[in-house]
Amino acid sequence: MTGRGSNLQLVLFDLDGTLVDSRATMFAAFETAYRAVGGVGRAPCEGLLAMQGQPLATILESLSLPPEMQPVFVTESREQIHRSRLYEGVREMLAGFRALGLNMAVATGKQAARARFVLDHFALTEYFDLVVGSDDVANGKPAPDMLYSAMERIGVGAESALMIGDALADLEAAANAGIPFILAGWGYCEKPLPAAETAATAAEASALVLARLGVSPSLAFATARAAYGG
Question: Is 14 a catalytic residue?
């Protein structure tokens, strides 16, 4: 059941900083990987955070760090998953969108298997039709490849899709794919992005999407509650 006020059929989500706050996990894993390759002093975690949304290999290269950090980081990220948390309102947002019949996909700078591990850990997998990781396409964000892949696999065009993310790379990927973008203001981005419609919370993002669909929040809540309980 979708509203009559929009052609929207697919909502694409970034993962880290949008659905899940994984900063503590990332920083712990990054410090371990940095020490494993002989890094001196503190690891440049701020640089890692600033480049979220892009593939890890790209981030390491941009920070002039050795690629040997990547396998250590990946292993440690799994070990440190308990440090991550789901953002408030995210599960309710996803349940509401699913109950309304929207397709949903994750488009992340993580490798697809790593992203599925995180979704499984937080019991979010059921909400998503597919996951597109940086290893599924030739070019990661800010290139539009991930978004194009998701749209092609779902069978919708740019006029029927929307992206929600917290990083400049997400905004640029959406712009390059020709689809609207909502900034997850609750995520890692600490300052407004140019020309970005911004939601302060997941509930506010839900309201913005529902407005595009012409669906009242109360109807969406009732529909999600009937479908998923609670």
Answer: yes
